[in-house]
Amino acid sequence: MDKKNDVQLINDFLQGDIGSFNRLVNRWQGKLYRFSYRYLQDEEEAKEVVQKALIKIYKNLKKLKNPEKFSSWTYQITLNLCRDTLKSSHKTRLIFENSFSRSDNNESNPGLDDIADDYDSSRRVHKSDLQDIVKMTLARLPEEQRVVIIMKEYDGFKFSEIAEILNCPVNTAKARMYYGLKRMQKIMKNLNIDMEVLFNEM
Amino acid sequence: MKCNLTEEKLLDYFYDELTGKDREEFEKHMETCPVCAEELKALQLTSRTMQTWEVPERKMNIIFVAEKGSLKERIKDAPDVVIRFLAQKPVKSFVFSVAAVFLLLSFTNFNARYDGESGSISLSSSVFGILQEEPDINEAMTQQIIQTQNQILELVNQIIIEYDQTRQEQTYSLVGQLLHEYNQSAQYQRVQDLQTMGLTLMQLQELTNQNYQTINNTRAIVYDVAQTAGIEIKR
């Protein structure tokens, strides 16, 4: 039913067809939500970011010079809002900064050692455990590496597109990706989790 | 051990961004380079692990509504909007209502109020102080819109909850009524059963009495006959 591409919808919207904008919203809100959620790891904050982003997109779409760039422009807006949220959110900051240092007075944020205890080799590991490991590991990466990894691995952007969103050279994006992945592998190794064995068990 | 090929090549290869000759070259290289092969394996495993993280869908009911007329006209007859609560389909009607006021929110200050008794939401609007031909939304206004939208959603939730409560109460009272009726009919049945039993017992008693009478009569006759015949009967 909805065969028009983004550029056509944008043009229709700029001609005054509000329905086209709603179709864009419908098409993009899921992606933007998943991206924001993976970045912030908080449902409510992610929802709020998407709301804000959609309003910004609505208000500023006529200023977008090249509609072909809609996707990266939209992600730029969303990412900026995510960053603002992360900066102002005390709770999220706790997850991202303190969750991996062992602190006995903060039981809601188990440190890495605790995770390691949980996932010893004798225990049967489930998919949800893996999810937790991934979330924790990603949260421990520097922001610039984390963003690239999320965009590449979950949003499926090309490196050139990621570079465009982040406004950096392509090789910089690739380097962040590479070192981010290395770091993830190292963290997982420190947890004594052999992913290969895990997947075979599951 | 180190490989002089760059990590960029490896990433491009893994994420399918190497094409044609470059791809063939890299594949050839990997056959003889244990470092790259090892790296690729680690990459595959990490990526596979990351793919286990699924994010559930969250559908946000955001609908943008067309702007009609100029801003000045809209401000002139900016109405107090009253939305009736339709008991049958609260969710649908309210999603629509939220959508309807959404755009208006961009330009006006809104106060949302919910009257629980009459079941209506009233939104009163007042216009921002400075008028602009081309409205440009700033951060504070964005915040306000979202805040008001959340406020309205909260009200909608409240109404849905109240609606649910009313429905529950209705259900409970219906169940209560049914139970009561059932009890009454059960009681009636019990009384009837007891009456039937009593009646049967009375009939049985009468029958027993009759039998007893018959037996006594028979016995008396037997005694008479025996006496007449001179036979002594031991009692």
Protein described:
The complex is a heterodimer of chains A (202) and B (235). By secondary structure, chain A is mainly α. In chain A, 72% of the residues lie in helices and 0% in strands. Chain A is built from eleven helices and no strands. Chain B contains six helices and three strands, in the order H-H-H-H-E-H-E-E-H. In chain B, strand 2 (108-115) and strand 3 (120-127) form a beta hairpin. Chain B is elongated and about 145 Å long. In chain B, strands 1-3-2 form a three-stranded antiparallel beta sheet. Chain B has 235 residues and is mainly alpha-helical.
Write the layout of secondary structure elements.
The complex is a heterodimer of chains A (202) and B (235).
Chain A: H1 6-14, H2 18-40, H3 43-60, H4 70-88, H5 90-98, H6 112-118, H7 127-139, H8 143-153, H9 159-166, H10 170-190, H11 195-201
Chain B: H1 7-14, H2 20-32, H3 34-50, H4 71-76, E1 81-84, H5 90-105, E2 108-115, E3 120-127, H6 139-228
Helix pairs in contact in B: 2-3, 5-6
